[in-house]
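Exercise: predict the fold of this chain.
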Amino acid sequence: MSRTAQREAPAAPASGVLLDGLVVASHRRHFAVRLDDGESLECVLKGRSMTLACGDRVRIARMAGGGSIEEVAPRSTLFYRSDAFKEKLIAANVTQVVGVVAPDLSVDEELVTRWIVAAEVHDCRFVLAANKSDKPDFDALLARLAPYAALGYTVVPLSAKRDVSPILPWLAGQRSVLIGQSGMGKSTILNAVTPSAGAKTAEISEALATGRHTTTHSTLYPLPDVLGGGWVVDSPGMKAFGLAHVAPDALEHAFPELRPLIGHCRFRDCRHDREPGCAVQAAVERGAVAPHRVALLHALIADSKAARVRGR
């Protein structure tokens, strides 16, 4: 678990009424919190021992001009990226990760796999939204995504500007985070699913004094009641997704095709590289496992080990 996730929340004040709410946006040490009664407040975090994310449940005390976050509830999940030097929180308490790809930008398959690994290690469902189905080269995109479908991940073709309905059953009742490179259409999907998102974006940006919203920070939006509740977090576009916080032993379990092979190598501490009797390498040789997936596993394990050496 992350060092960030392990830190203790600031202690509650000795007196005063605390109000329950949900973090819906952040900018540095300032947070927009939607109280359970529907009111929105600009809040500051008491103390500096913890960083919050959209989706965090908090308790606040009213103060002049807003509120002070006094308590943070335990998280069921924490979706974030990291390298050996820093962590970037994206969303807390998510149940689902929705990766958004489109044909007008080259799909970075390693990046998509990193999103999947992050979802798997937190037992979150992963869905691939293949956006812009009206583009002429969309069939080529679907062909590139076929290996993910073969691994059991849902691929949802849609054109958010024309018809967003294909993705709605997958969002209904879930606490989702949308993730993807800039230009893939995350915000377009969000605006189609939640028509009030544009107005809410402007309201949050004004409250946090961030100016025009360009998805530079994660922002949370509640889903319409017709979808059975839940919410969606729109995350900034990103070209990299580090997983240095994931323990080396947990990484191989995040690759579904490798799970049946774990424990069947000749050596208990097999690194699935050049060891004799390696079940993983045998699967690669017979074409049951893609070699580039195993190569990525080795790279992720190396990054994880290096981060732990630096952290000592």
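Check your answer against the key: Residues 1-15, 199-205, 209-215 have pLDDT under 50 and may be disordered.
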